[in-house]
Specification:
- The complex is a heterodimer of chains A (432) and B (370).
- Chain A has 432 residues and is α/β, with parallel strands linked by helices.
- Chain A folds into 2 domains: 5-288, no CATH class; 290-319 and 354-432, 3-Layer(aba) Sandwich (Rossmann fold), CATH 3.40.50.11900.
- Chain A has helices at 5-8, 11-20, 23-32, 46-51, 66-81, 87-121, 130-139, 157-166, 183-204, 210-232, 244-260, 265-280, 306-312, 321-324, 337-350, 355-368, 389-399, 415-431, and strands at 37-39, 55-57, 146-153, 172-176, 292-296, 316-318, 373-379, 403-408.
- Chain A has a 4-stranded parallel beta sheet, with helices on both faces. In chain A, strands 6-5-7-8 form a 4-stranded parallel beta sheet, sandwiched between helices.
- In chain A, strand 1, helix 4 and strand 2 form a beta-alpha-beta unit.
- Chain B is an alpha/beta fold and 370 residues long.
- Chain B has a domain at 3-155: Rossmann fold (3-Layer(aba) Sandwich).
- Chain B has a 4-stranded parallel beta sheet, sandwiched between helices. In chain B, strands 6-5-7-8 form a 4-stranded parallel beta sheet, with helices on both faces.
- In chain B, strand 5 (227-232), helix 9 (241-247) and strand 6 (251-255) form a beta-alpha-beta unit.
- Chain B is globular, with a radius of gyration of 20 Å.
- The chains are: A alpha/beta (432), B alpha/beta (370).
- The A-B interface holds A 123, 125, 127-128, 153, 155-158, 160-161, 163-165, 174, 176, 178-180, 182, 184-185, 187-188, 191-192, 195, 354-356, 378, 380-384, 386-391 and B 62-65, 67-69, 96, 98-100, 102-103, 106-107, 110, 120, 122-124, 128-129, 131-132, 135-136, 139, 291-293, 320, 322-323, 325-327, 329-330.
Chain lengths: 432, 370
């Protein structure tokens, strides 16, 4: 499948990619401006961090990337040649664009491999899930830079273990999210969030006012809206704005960037809004004959080569866990803003409070996005969501959506087998 | 107690209880579900502690993945294999403190048509968490009332608490006698005392404990053999890990898991309203194994080790348990190493691990501490 250079030269798209790879530069800038870094591995509480004047950072974004140089070069070229490149200009930048997209995925994956190895070096428990292993491997090297880490009490035992282990090196702010929506759970959540606010205020010396929080939530809501809109393009597959590989790359970029809003919420929002405006004017690509595959769950990690594999097989992979778990729903901005935020946290957690709920959400997403097939990602070591497989298997059959299960433990394991399995699955879908 | 007793004695015993109009509630591991509330509701709490055999654990893979704790898998496996003991349940009760349990309860309810009641545990132990826990227990109480078509008065609940505290008092008395004049009971015999509670209930257990206390002075002290502190995962009924250890000439004199006498080292008492007292007790049940543990776990373990002049620590891990093994084992190893306390970690998957492997490691540990 060829890559259309012009897609990657959309300025807002380029900017987002570039910012994604600039974490080290951003960190230097935050240090100069004395903005404390707050680590996070879940897209929860980020608005509070911004409202306190601190900078959230998803440690997986930190690293040295060759792609950054390429991106800078490309942005420079587009600035010189103009953003509406045509003819020879675009062709000239074609190799550059291919480089960017390939580098984005391969370099990011290379980083993941490094963090996985680092977790082993740090003797992190090898049987824990992939997500917490790389979270540990990516966070610990930056223990001197990250001043506080957001930790959440969820139904996932591995997350709790990760936070507890991390606490030996980086102070954590542990906030429990009760597995209930009962009135007493809402009260408890309010107390927990109030404690988190105090902790952030102590860290930065700034007060989190209702207005400062409301302002950040409004920005975040716009981001959520744009993210949803981009996912929902797939509902009308004959009017897609990007080629499948570029679209997959965008979805991958968003799923990672959504965790810390690229550490710059205004910039992220501004470029995402612009990107959606651009994409809305480009609804001219037909995905007929391109199988659309939803992968669930990806929350705790999946084989990073999957998008390339699916691209090579002529399909389009959708990783949209945040949509299924209600994390892309807007937060209410009228009334008591802290309580609204608490309700958002509770709702997001309750979307995966048990496996019946989670299976219902996945199937709803699959039907809503009209996918052609579902890949169930059986993450070895995941003791909370992967056990939903039995329920999933029994319920997906009633929907008539073809499905397949794949195993994932470590990056690059059994890749050949995985490719064969997916090739047969896609063949089957194409025949249908 | 042995497995044969289940069919011959226990099943008829439970049928009799049901015939008297009591509801039978199945509860899983960890010792965190407040049985006092079930007792006060006129129900019978039955611990679903059968595991250890290969077959049920393997059967459970049809429901849970092979990377889920083999205890949870075995529990579902026993339902799938239509174990008579589990066939009489009116409802099943579970919490959120352990993924294995959370998933197992959900699937048991779904695939074996058993109503499910849930309790949400907070991860933390601060004052707000306690307040939440009180409300959550009240919520659970209402669920029991609705399910059983009854009302639970404060007096009934207080009586239930006192009944369970009586049992805890007796357990503590045994622990004291064992420490001061014993040990008279081996680890396996002590475990049997807990199994009686889990399977026959608090009333039967109290009578049995009284009898044991009366007979203890007539028993011969087990003076030979190195004394072991056993911690980590609880020991399911059918899991012979304690026997394996003791067959090598070691004595498990302290068992800190929820299947050990030492777990019941405090009372609920009259600490505020009955629900508050219960909440305070269960929120602090540290050794149960739950999502977030405080460092008290290590301090407590070391204190007990030092106070009882023990010879080594065996830390038991049920493979794929996401709570007990990782952090605790990593930190415990470092902690005990710094104090030069001999330590052995044993891991078992009921469907895979062979006894021979475990025996070799226990033998080597014994030689080391001797």
């Amino acid at each position: 499948m060829s890559i259309d250079a012009e897609e990657f030269l959309i300025p807002s798209f380029l900017n987002l990619n570039l910012k994604f790879f600039s974490a080290e530069k951003q960190i230097r800038k935050f240090r100069r401006h004395k903005r404390p870094l707050v680590g996070t591995i879940l897209p929860l509480g980020v608005e509070l961090v911004f409202a306190a004047g601190a900078a959230p950072i998803f440690p997986l974004r930190i690293g040295k990337f060759e792609a950054e140089k390429l991106l800078r070069g490309t942005r420079l070229a587009t600035n010189i040649l103009g953003s509406s490149l045509v003819g020879a200009g675009a062709r000239m930048l074609q190799p550059q664009a291919e480089g960017i997209i390939n580098q984005f995925l391969t370099e990011y994956n290379k980083n993941l491999c490094e963090y996985e190895n680092k977790a082993d070096e740090f003797n992190y428990y090898p049987e824990s899930c992939f997500a917490t292993r790389i979270a540990y491997g990516s966070s610990l090297p930056y223990r001197d830079l990250i001043k506080l880490f957001l930790a959440w009490g969820t139904r996932c035992g591995w997350f709790s273990q990760f936070y507890a282990a991390l606490n030996d090196s980086i102070p954590i702010a542990f906030t429990d999210i009760p597995n209930s929506m009962a009135p007493h759970a809402r009260e408890f959540m309010y107390e927990e969030v109030s404690q988190l606010i105090n902790r952030l205020e102590q860290l930065t010396g700034n007060r989190i006012t209702d207005e400062s929080l409301r302002e950040k939530i409004l920005l975040a809501n716009d981001i959520r809206k744009c993210y949803r809109e981009i996912i929902y393009y797939i509902k009308t597959p004959n009017e897609m704005p990007l080629s499948p590989y570029a679209y997959m790359q965008l979805i991958a970029l968003l799923s990672i960037s959504f965790v810390d809003f690229l550490s710059v919420i205004k910039y992220f929002r501004k470029n995402l809004v612009k990107l959606v405006q651009e994409l809305n004017n480009r609804r001219n690509i037909d995905y007929s004959g391109v199988p659309k595959l939803l992968i669930v769950p990806v929350f705790s990690g999946s084989e990073p080569d999957l998008p390339q594999i699916i691209r090579d097989l002529g399909g389009c992979l959708l990783q949209v866990d945040y949509l299924s778990y209600g994390m892309l729903e807007p937060i209410k901005t009228e009334g008591d803003i802290i309580r609204n935020y608490c309700d958002y946290l509770l709702k997001s957690h309750n979307a995966w409070k048990d496996n019946k709920t989670i299976v219902t959400s996945w199937l709803k997403t699959a039907q809503e996005l009209k996918v052609d097939g579902i890949i169930f990602n059986k993450l070895i070591g995941c003791t909370s969501i992967t056990p939903a497989y039995r329920l999933f298997k029994d319920r997906v059959q009633a929907t008539g959506i073809p499905f397949i299960d794949i195993d994932f433990n470590r990056i690059g394991e059994n890749l050949a087998q995985l490719k064969n399995k997916l090739a047969s699955f896609i063949e089957l879908i194409k025949k249908d | 107690m042995n497995v044969n007793e289940i069919e011959a004695l226990l099943v008829p015993y439970l049928r009799k209880i049901k015939a008297s109009g009591k509801k039978l509630y199945g509860i899983l591991a960890h010792g965190l579900i407040p049985e006092e509330l079930i007792y006060a509701a006129g129900g019978f709490p039955l611990r679903l502690i059968l595991a250890g055999d290969k077959n049920p654990s393997t059967k459970g893979i049809e429901y849970l993945t092979s990377a889920t704790c083999s205890f949870a898998r075995a529990t579902i496996g026993h339902f799938e294999l239509k174990n008579e003991l589990y066939s009489e349940l009116d409802a099943i009760i579970g919490g959120n403190y352990c993924n294995g349990e959370l998933c197992a309860i959900e699937l048991i309810s779904e695939y074996f048509n058993i109503p499910k009641l849930s309790i949400v545990f907070p991860s933390t132990k601060n004052e707000f968490a306690l307040k939440f826990m009180v409300a959550e227990l009240d919520h659970f109480k209402q669920d029991l009332e609705r399910f059983g078509g009854i009302q639970i008065s404060d007096e009934q609940l207080q009586n239930a608490i006192e009944r369970y505290d009586t049992e805890r008092d007796l357990i503590q008395e045994i622990v004291k006698i064992q420490s001061e004049r014993g040990p008279f009971l081996s680890g396996s015999e002590s475990l049997d005392l807990m199994y009686r509670h889990f399977l026959y209930g608090v009333d039967s257990s109290i009578e049995h404990l009284k009898q044991v206390i009366k007979e203890l002075p007539n028993k011969q002290s087990l003076s030979k053999g190195k004394k072991i502190l056993f911690a980590g995962n609880g020991v399911a009924f059918g899991d012979n890990i304690i026997q394996l250890i003791e067959r090598q000439g070691l004595i498990v004199t302290k068992n800190l898991t929820w299947t050990g006498l030492d777990y019941y080292n405090s009372l609920v008492g009259r600490n505020g309203t009955p629900l508050t007292a219960l909440a305070r007790y269960y929120i602090n049940a540290e050794n149960s194994g739950r999502m977030v543990l405080s460092t008290d776990y290590f301090k407590n373990l070391t204190r007990i080790y030092e106070e009882n002049d023990l010879d080594g620590v065996i830390f038991y891990i049920i493979k794929h348990c996401s709570i007990i093994p990782s952090l605790i084992s990593m930190n415990l190893k470092a902690h005990l190493k710094s104090k030069e306390i001999p330590y052995l970690e044993l891991e078992r998957d009921y469907s895979l691990t062979s006894e021979a492997q475990l025996l070799t490691r226990i033998q080597a540990f014994k030689e080391m501490i001797e």
